[in-house]
């Protein structure tokens, strides 16, 4: 009887310790108040400033389109169906000096500028060389997709590209298969590139205040790392049923071994 009691106690203790707490599996919990908040979250995203190795998609249109054809890639009408490879070969890559090289206009320094600022720079250069009035030309400057890398405890690791202007951390993770219960949602790492090097930022995705973070929206070339929980290294399940099954298997193996030894 005592042996059965000890086994039951061991089972309960193991289940309670090795399970992932329910609150650790939930996103966007309101941890400051006991009731749901109706507060409007004000976004804190700053305009993205172009970095080395970024690829810019630049298109120039004019009343006489043949005069600007040299700036635009051949087969422009099929851009909606373009692949990442197409964006790479048709785009303008920012070199190690922060410049892009454009036909007729030569080298243009774009490092640290926003896409709106680069648009204005190109328009000014065109007005100096080709056109007399601003309403004769129309320039668009965009990043060729938002590329980032996800690694760690997620459904699908690797480098991903989303063709949107803005992508928040939840969209980025959803595009990578989301975080399983064995991933640490309380401390997701954002490794961001800066001219002077890399910096690491921490996000708690279980807290609604994450939407107030200046790192809630990811940037091109970000790396997202999700750490595994301790339960993953223990080799136990994420819930009570899985743990009971694992413990039952181990206990069955121990019992069988004891019985076989007793017969020897």
TrEMBL record:
Domain annotation Polysaccharide export protein N-terminal: ranges: 44-143
Top-level taxonomic group: Bacteria
Signal peptide residue numbers: 1-19
Keywords: Signal
Listed PROSITE patterns: PROKAR_LIPOPROTEIN
Pfam families the record matches: Poly_export
Protein's name according to its UniProt entry: Polysaccharide biosynthesis/export family protein
Organism: Hwangdonia seohaensis
